[in-house]
Prior knowledge:
The complex is a heterodimer of chains A (91) and B (135). With 91 residues, chain A is mostly beta strands. In chain A, 0% of the residues lie in helices and 43% in strands. In chain A, a hairpin with a 2-residue loop joins strand 6 and strand 7. Chain A is elongated. The termini of chain A are far apart. The relative contact order of chain A is 0.28. Chain B has a single domain, classed as Immunoglobulin-like (Sandwich). Chain B is built from no helices and 9 strands. Chains A and B meet through strand 4 of A and strand 3 and strand 4 of B.
Amino acid sequence: MVVELPGLKKEEIEISLHDDTLTIAGERKREESSEQEFLTERLYGKFQRSLTLPTAVDAEKVKASYKNGLLQVELPKAEDAKPKKIEVALK
Amino acid sequence: MNILSQPKKDQAMVSNEDDRQAVYVAPSADVESTDVGYVIRAEMPGVEKDGLEITVDRGEMIILGRRKPIEVTGELIYREIRPHDFRRVYELAPSIDSTKITANIDEGILTVTLPKAETVKPRDRCAISARKKTT
Lengths: 91, 135
């Protein structure tokens, strides 16, 4: 999963997994500035997004990285959820 | 600083430069005004320093940010991120010294600093002091 989250430090991003729901949350803080804002388009404040995963994932093996303002989350499917070949025994 | 009205950030913009048709998205950007100039902070996730191109031409500053393509290793089951590169044009007020514009990008935030020309900065009260003016 790739999420656009420019302007954060990785410590500011919270990722949590509860059952089959993945939640990404954090807060966008404004740069400290006493200067006059001329035009503000960027959104600031707390953010949160949850999504339901279509298959179960192995929570122990979830990995996340943050680079160039993109958060990448890898969620390996749980063993049970992986497609399995079922051998049909022929008599 | 005048800002050319650009399409709303949700709309893609087609540019016909160099006889090429390319589709761009205008990045959300804040503009700050200070005594010594302006600062623009634009969101360009996925853009690294080598993907940036900032040019000044006839009083216009064109900011271009090329994203590194997002690798899809499996089957793409949902796409929301628009893969387009970023582009935005600003009309520069004459008070800006375009030779002194600097920029850097960090975690997808491009910061462009546009200093006002020396002679335009607010002066101290004692204008009588013999100070060399840069011309």
